[in-house]
Amino acid sequence: MSAEMPLQGPVALPSRRRAVQGLLTTAATLLGGCSGNSSLLNSFTSPTPPPQSAQAPPGAAIGAGEVKAGLILPLSAAGNAGVAGQSMRNAAEMAVAEFNNPNVQLLLKDDGGTAEAARLAAQQALDEGAEIILGPLFAQSVSVVGQMARSRNIPVIAFSTDANVASAGVYLLSFLPESDVDRIVQYAGSTGKRSYAALIPDNPYGTVVEAAFKQAVARRNGQIVALERYPHDKAALAGPIRTVAQAAARADALFIPDGGDSVPDVAQGLMTAGLNMKKIQLLGTGLWDDSRISANPALDGGWYAAPDGAGYRGFAERYRARFKQEPTRTATLAYDAVALIAALVKTQGTQRFSTAVLTNPSGFTGIDGLFRFKADGTNERGLAVLKVTPSGSQILAPPPKSFGGSGI
Asked: How would you classify the pairing of strands 132-134 and 156-158?
C-alpha cells in the first residue's frame, strides 16, 4: 500500500490513480458538488453553523512526523458538507498510512463550514507550527484562510472549485470546469470540428463554462454559430432549445455542459425541435459521468472530458476495505494533497513547499491523474476523453502522460 511511482518532475506520489470527476451531490452549484460527477464551481453551499464548537480539539492530529501541516475540513458541518469533511479526513489518514508513515503531522482542524471558524482554525494551525495548510473546502473560507496564511508566507492547497479564490500561494487542488472545457474542445478540434453550437445552464457553473468555452474555441480558430443559456425549469427550456436547434445545421458539434438531471430533457427538447441528434457531435463536461447519460439513447456517442476512472476505482476499493463505507467524491482531493506534501517532505528538503516546487511545470500524478498548479493558484489536469455508450463510458483518448509547453 505504500508504493511510490516515479512521476512528472522531481516528485513521486503513491500510486493508485483516480476516476471520473465528480464531487458529491450538494444543494447548490458554486463549486463542485454534483451528482457523482465533475467540476462545479463552488463546492457546497455553506451549511448552517452547528451549535457545537466549530474547531477540533487543539491536540487532534494525524501522523507523528516533524513537519506540520494544517488540515482544515468541515467535519461538524450539517448535511453533505459534514459527510464530505469526514470522508476527506479518512482519506487523509489513509494517505499517511499508505505512504508508510511519512515525516508529516497533520494538524486536524474543524471549520464547521463557516469562514470565521476557518480563520480561527488557520490561526491555530499556524500558531502550532504548520508549514503549509490543506483546505478548506468552501470558497469563502479559502479567501480568509489565504489572507491569513499569506501574511505569514505560508502556502495553502485548498479544495474549492471557485477559481476566483485562487491566487499566488493559494493553490486549488480541485476539478475546475475550465480543464474539462479546454480538453473537450481541444479533442473536438483535433478531429476536424470547427463550428460549434452550445446550450449552457443559466447558473454559476454555466457562467464559468461559457467563458472557458468561448476562449477555448477562439484559441483553436473555431467559431460559435449559436449559444443560448437555459434555466433549470422545463417550461422555459423550449425557447433556447429551439434557437439552437435551428442554428445547429451549421455546426459540427453541440456543447451541453450539464449533468444527468438536465441533459436528457435538453436532448428530448432538441429532438422535438427537429434536430437530428445523430448528425451532430454532442460534447459535454465531466458532469456527463452519470448513469442517466449512458442510459439515454439520444446521447449515445457523445464525448466528454474527465479523469480516467481506474485510479478512483482502486482508491474506493481500498477506502471501503479500511472504513467499511463508500468515500465521497471529494475524498481523493484530500488523499492527493496529503500524498503530495508527504512526497515533497521526503524529496525536496527545505525547499519542499516553495513556489518553485509547488508550481513545477512538469506537475504531479495523483489518484485522479496528472495535475499541476499554475502561478495564479489554479490548476491544470490531464484528462481523458470518453465516449457515451449504453454499457457505460469508453475511453476515446487517454489522458496525456505529461504536460507539454504551457498547457496540455
From this structure: parallel
d(CA 188, CA 195): 10
Backbone φ/ψ region at 129: left (φ over 0), alpha (ψ -120 to 50), beta: left
Phi/psi for 379 (5° steps) reads -135, 165
Count of CA atoms in the C-beta half-sphere (13 A) of 122 = 29
Q: Which residues contact 324 (CB under 8 A, 6 or more apart)?
A: none
CA pair distance 116, 39, nearest whole angstrom:
26
pLDDT digits (tens, 9 = 90+) for 135-193: 999 999 999 999 999 999 999 999 998 999 999 999 999 999 999 999 999 999 999 99
Helix (H, G, I), strand (E, B) or coil at 132: strand
Q: Which residue has the higher pLDDT, 45 or 311?
A: 311
Q: Please give the Cα distance from 142 to 169 (Å, whole number).
A: 12
Q: Please say whether the beta carbons of 292 and 261 come within 8 A.
A: yes
DSSP string, 66-84: SEEEEEEE-TT-SHHHHHH
Beta carbons within 10 angstroms of residue 198's beta carbon: 25
Written as one letter, the residue type at 368 is D
Number of residues written out for the chain? 408
Nine-digit cell at 48? Answer: 448552517
Q: Kindly report the backbone phi and psi dihedral angles of residue 142, in degrees, each rounded to the nearest multiple of 5, phi listed first.
A: -60, -40
**DSSP per-residue letters across 275-294:** --GGGSEEEE-GGG-SHHHH
Task: Locate 337 and state its grid cell.
Answer: 494533497
- 323 by DSSP, 3-state: which? helix
Question: How many angstroms separate the CA atoms of 53 and 57, rounded?
Answer: 9
Q: How far apart are CA 42 and CA 4, in angstroms?
A: 32
> What is the pTM assigned to this prediction?
0.83
